[in-house]
Amino acid sequence: MEATVGVSEMVAPALPKMGPLEKVYVTWLAGGSCDGCSISVLGATNPSVEALLGGTVPGLPKLELFHTALSYESGAEYINLLKKCESGEYWPFVVVLEGSVPNEDLAGDGFWIAIGEEKGRPITTAEWLKRLCPKAAATIAIGTCATWGGVPAAQGNATGAMGLMDFLGPDYRSTFGLPVVNIPGCAPIGDNFIEVVAAVLLFLQGLAPLPEFDELGRPAWIYGETVHRGCPRAGFYEEGVFAKEYGDKECLVEKGCWGPVVQCNMASRGAINGMGGCMQMGGVCIGCTMPGFPDKFSPMFAKPPGAEISALVAKRVTGAMVKPLRALTQRDKNRSIRWDERVPSGWAPKGKPFALDRVVNYFYKKVQTSR
Predict the structure, then answer these.
(1) Residue 129, class by beta-carbon neighbours within 10 Å (0-12 exposed, 13-18 middle, 19+ buried)?
(2) Residue 124 parent element (H or E)
(3) Domain count, the chain
(4) What is the CATH number of the domain that holds 52?
(5) How do residues 244-264 score in pLDDT, each as one tens digit?
(6) Do the bridges between strand 62-67 and strand 23-30 make them parallel or antiparallel, or are there none, so unpaired?
(7) How many angstroms from the chain centroid is the CA of residue 55?
(8) Are 208 and 189 in contact (CB under 8 A)?
(9) Could you tell me the pTM of the whole model?
(10) Residue 361 domain-assigned (yes or no)
(11) Do 123 and 238 belong together in one domain?
C-alpha cells in the first residue's frame, strides 16, 4: 500500500443536493493513540457530546457515532457500519481520525494497526482511511498524533507514523472540497473539537459559510493566538518577574514554558468546562499543539533558547524601569485627594504624598484637561 493517497486515486460518489440535514454519521477511526482525545471530547460542555448525539442543539443535525470504543456494536456488526458508509448507504458521513497513521509498508509480513478483518485478513487503519476519506463529506484529524504525527512519529520511531494530512497528500479534498481539518493538542480541548464540528456541520447544511482556517488547516479563531497572550501569568513576564521553582505564581518561561510562541487557547479557555489547563495548574507549555512536537521541543522542561534574551530584556527594561514607575503611580492612585489635603484617619496612609507623586499627578491632570 502506498503511504500517500493522491487525489487522482479518489473516486467520490455523486454529490447529492444538500439542505438541512436530519442526521450525519460520524466514523471515528483509531490510529496510533492513547485514546486521550476521546476522553477529552467526552468532557466537552458547550455543547456536550450527549446533546449532539441526541439532536437537541438548534440548527444542528443529530449525530450517529461509530466509535471503536463507545459504539454499542462490536466485531462484525461494527465493521458493517463502516462498510455502509463506504457504500453510500449511510450518507453524509464525516471521518474523524484519532491517532497517527503508521506506514504499513514498513510492517513486513504483519501490520501495525487494524480495525476488523475481511475475508480472513486484517483491515488496517490506513486502508480504512483510503477507502472512506475520498467519500466523506469532511475529514477531521483530532489530536496532535492525527494532525502532525505527534509522539508516535517522533524521531527514531519504527512505524513511520505520520499525520492524516501527510498520509492523504496535499491534493486531498473531501466530497465538499475540504482539505483535512486539523484540531491539534495532546489532548485537544474537548470544546475546541465540538465547536469546530458544529461549524463544519452548519457549512455542510448550507446554513453558514465555511469557517476560517489557517495555512495548516487549523481553525483560525482557536489557534490564531499564542498561549502567552491568554496566560494568567503573562503580566509577570511583562514586569520581568519569573518563577524560581515549580509552584510559584510567577511566569514560567525560565522553567521551560514555550507559551510565547505556541499557538493554543488552553490558557484562556481552560481544559474542561472553562477550568484547569497547563499554566493554571502550575505546568509549563510544552508545545503539544505544534507540528514540531515533540522533537523540536525536547528536552522538555528545559529553558527555551529564546528565553535567555527575552527574559533578560524583561528583567532589565520593563522590570527595572517600568515596574517602579507603575508602583509610583499605583501609590498615588491609592490616595484620596482628601488625604493629600488633610490628616487622614483609620487605614488611610498618613502624611503628605512624596514630591515625585505630586509631580506625576500634576502632569497627569495637565494631560487630562488638554484632551
Answers:
(1) buried
(2) strand 121-124
(3) 2
(4) 3.40.50.700
(5) 999 999 999 999 999 999 999
(6) parallel
(7) 25
(8) no
(9) 0.85
(10) no
(11) no
